[in-house]
Design brief:
homodimer, alpha/beta, Rossmann fold, seven-stranded mixed β-sheet, four-stranded mixed β-sheet, 7 helices, 11 strands, protease (chains A, B), serine protease (chains A, B), dipeptidase (chains A, B), Dipeptidase PepE (chains A, B), Class_I_gatase-like (chains A, B)
Chain lengths: 233, 233
């Protein structure tokens, strides 16, 4: 496998994918073309508009973007792609569409067989066994919360630390993830904005400048330094 | 119907239900006993612990609390109760349990036939047609996102305004609700902490000190003053 699984597409004060483009270009060895999966539709934008947004970013490194929605057979598009990018937005929308079109298994097969994969936010969320640690609103009912499972732990993207002086009584992210661990055995990696997971063959590393927060059933959460292996999480 | 549907059980700096107890006592005419539904299990606490927490609050107004989990037939408990309280926690857990035990319809019937109802947070979320505007993490997969539908609009509890100077790139609450409205026709009431909806027969009013934010498909969100009728939302 060769994947970049990123917390977010965009960090504060810079353009779409800007902080990751050089890394993408090097890691995936100057990719000529990428198959874009726009189903998560951030803010409800159309597949075409979203694909254009990806194209505007990728053209800076000379990579052509083709939206999966423009193919007669999205399954065949996945099977034939050398490089696939799933963008962020609403994870429920994304997963519902992938299940309904029967693309979850073909996508998993492609990635585990070596097709390069880039995910951001919702596109990273689906790399875990389930989407049960998404932050998104359940705006549609998917036939299942199961996802790719190319990682054996779940991702919580855009991970936010509890605000020490907050007066808000809604649950913190940490509380929510602990509730998840009451119901599930899967570990969770809280991936802060600007962090990503680099999968290269058998190696899995945390990358970016920040540490990540690890949540496991029946133990206290802890910090994991950047450039640490994620094997065994 | 006679209901208090509150954004939160607890406001900053005060105890569980403290800000609402006097209102509950007056509105429901000094209730002697309340049937408590603890299935949302905030922070994963047990049904017993959660019921004790409710009891500790309600004893200040002389109301006895009985947990629905202590009855052989929870359906019969609902049918025989004069006053039902569903506490907050994780909405997915709550709804999964209500569906699995076949309690959604009996609860709807009871409330529409006049059984007093108090909901906070997740217990308020289920008063709309669906739970699709919950803030909670989907830690379990419920058989449906449909809920009581005793209101004809959805609730977003713990509503938070966008932070003007935030550097976080995760979606704001407003963005999430707009994504919901791209996929659904149901209006959404963003209910700030300390606000509640009072249903009394045919009347439905926003109560508390704050305004609420209304989101409708194909129009801009707007503020609704407190003590305004919610009929026709």
């Amino acid at each position: 496998m060769k994947c970049i699984i990123a917390s977010t597409s965009t960090i504060y004060g810079s353009g779409y994918l800007a902080y990751l483009l050089d890394e993408i270009n090097i890691f995936f060895n100057k990719p000529k073309e990428v198959l874009f999966i726009p189903y998560a539709r951030p803010g409800g934008i159309s597949h075409d508009t979203y694909t254009q947004k990806a194209q505007d970013a990728f053209e800076k490194i000379g990579t052509k973007v083709k939206g999966i929605h423009t193919y007669d057979s999205p399954e065949k598009a996945i099977q034939e792609a050398k490089f696939i990018f799933t963008g962020g937005g609403n994870t429920f929308l994304l997963v519902k569409k992938l299940h309904e079109l029967g693309l979850m298994l073909p996508l998993k097969k492609a990635v585990t067989n070596g097709t390069f994969y880039l995910g951001t936010s919702a596109g990273s969320n689906i790399c875990g066994p389930t989407i049960m640690t998404t932050n998104d609103m359940p705006i549609v009912y998917p036939p299942s919360f199961n996802s790719l499972g190319i990682l054996n732990f779940n991702i919580n993207p855009h991970y936010l630390d509890p605000l020490p002086n907050s007066t808000h009584k809604g649950e913190t992210r940490e509380t929510r993830i602990k509730e998840f661990l009451q119901q599930n055995k899967v570990s969770v990696l809280g991936l802060r904005e600007g962090s990503w997971i680099a999968v290269n063959g058998q190696e899995i590393y945390l990358r970016g400048e920040l540490s990540a927060r690890v949540f496991k059933a029946a133990s206290s959460p802890y910090e994991l330094s950047t450039n640490t292996s994620l094997i065994g999480l």
